Amino acid sequence: MESKSPIPPRSLVTIRDSADPNTRDLVGLVLRIGYYSRQDGLECVWLVDKDGKYFCTWEQSNIYDDFKILELSDETDCYGADREILGPID
User: Fold this and answer.
1) Per-domain residue ranges for the chain?
2) Per-residue model confidence as pLDDT tens digits over 32-53
3) CB 64 within 8 A of CB 72
4) pTM of the model
5) 8 Å CB contact between 87 and 52
6) pLDDT value at position 3?
7) What is the CB neighbour count within 10 angstroms for residue 22?
8) Within the chain, which residues score under 70 in pLDDT?
9) So what's the pLDDT on residue 23?
10) Given 25, 35, 45, 49, which is the most exposed site by the fewest CB atoms within 10 A?
């Protein structure tokens, strides 16, 4: 099975309608993909809420199945070296 590229930081996503009771409260929220952590690697996707807070993680292998991409970022630095921290969504 071919693996997909990591979703770029700053991309906007929303969780797909889910029967999983642990994610129902996230359905419909617009979230951003945060910068990846070198410690966690590219398999650990950080989700950032509308206020710019990193609030939960998701497995990269499930991100394309579990989320709808609203806007794909053109960010090329997955780790955000020398980048401004993510602030609130405008």
Assistant:
1) 12-71
2) 999 999 999 999 999 999 999 9
3) no
4) 0.86
5) yes
6) 58
7) 7
8) 1-3, 19
9) 80
10) 25
SS in 3 state form for the chain?
CCCCCCCCCCCEEEECCCCCCCCHHHECCEEEECCCCCCCCCCEEEEECCCCCEEEEEEHHHHHHHEEEEECCCCCCCCCCCCCCCCCCC
Task: Give backbone dihedrals phi and psi of 31, rounded to 5 degrees, phi first.
Answer: -125, 160
Q: What is the pLDDT of residue 1?
A: 41
Give 45-48 contacts, CB < 8 A, sequence gap 24+: 45/6, 45/7, 47/13, 48/86
What percent of the chain has pLDDT above 90?
56
Long-range contacts of range 80-86, CB-CB < 8 Å, 24 or more positions apart? Answer: 80/9, 80/35, 80/36, 83/35, 85/52, 86/9, 86/10, 86/32, 86/34, 86/35, 86/48, 86/52
